[in-house]
Structure formats: C-alpha cells, structure tokens
Design a protein that fits this description.
Number of helices: 4
Shape: elongated
Oligomer: single chain
Helix content: over 70%
Radius of gyration: 21 Å
Distance between the termini: 61 Å
Number of strands: 0
Largest sheet: none
Order of helices and strands: HHHH
Structural class: mainly alpha
Keywords: Membrane, Transmembrane, Transmembrane helix
C-alpha cells in the first residue's frame, strides 16, 4: 500500500507543478491515472490466470462497455476510499529519482508481462481455431 500511496503522491506532485490545473482537476486526474494503473494491473492478473490456470474468458467476457464500467467503478472506489481525503500526502514522501525509477520499473514489468501473456493467449487461440477448422473439414469430407 505504501508503494501505491507513493505513486499517488508522485502523480499529485507532478500535476500540481502545472499551474493551469485547479486542485479539483488535480484530484480528478490523480484518481483517473491511478485507476488506469490499477485496471491494467488487474487485466494482467486476469489474463495470466486465464492463460496458465483457468480459462476464465470462457465464463467472463470483457467487452468495451464492461471495460468502461469497471474503470468507472475502480475510479469511484479509488476516489472515495483513498484520494478524497488525501491520505497519500500525509506520509512525508520525498520526490527522489529512485522512487521515479521504481514507478517506471513497475510499469515496465507490468507491460512486459502483459505482452508476454497476450502472445501466449494469441498462440492458444490460433491453436483452438486450427483444431476447430480441422474438425469442420473432417466433418465436411464425411
């Protein structure tokens, strides 16, 4: 949780350096950016479970509309429980290079895992399509 508070702190401080944003805008953008980070992390976990353990995409389908509703739900919960009262500013964090590198490294790791999982999923789907196509050809010839 401390890492997440630090992420929120860095987003808030980066946005507050720009004088064009009001405090309300900063809070909204902080909520939105951190919610996208959480959603991407959740999607990475979801697809990892789907590829390696259970085929949950057979039971739970994520389309564009459900994606937007999930993002709005995460944003609301994120704002209501964490960002609204600005707990993340009470931890006396410092803006240092090491923290920035950690945030960039965590994003890089999540993106890398997501790309690897997406390629594995694509291979699995292609194999399933080949099997289905071969079964159709076999049934058609009989």
């Amino acid at each position: 949780m401390k890492f997440y508070y630090y992420l929120l702190f860095r987003i808030h401080k980066t946005l507050s350096k720009n004088k064009n944003y009001s405090e309300k805008d900063i809070v909204i953008f902080t909520s939105l950016i951190s919610s996208i980070y959480i959603l991407f992390l959740m999607l990475t976990i979801y697809f990892t479970i789907d590829v390696f353990y259970l085929h949950v995409t057979n039971y739970i389908d994520i389309n564009k509309l459900s994606f937007v509703f999930i993002l709005l739900g995460i944003s609301y919960l994120n704002y209501y429980f964490i960002i609204r009262n600005k707990k993340y500013l009470d931890h006396n964090f410092n803006e240092d290079k090491m923290g920035g590198y950690l945030i960039i490294a965590s994003l890089g790791i999540i993106f890398t895992i997501f790309i690897i999982i997406a390629n594995k999923n694509r291979e699995r789907l292609n194999n399933d399509r080949k099997i289905t196509f071969n079964e159709k050809q076999l049934n058609h010839t009989l």
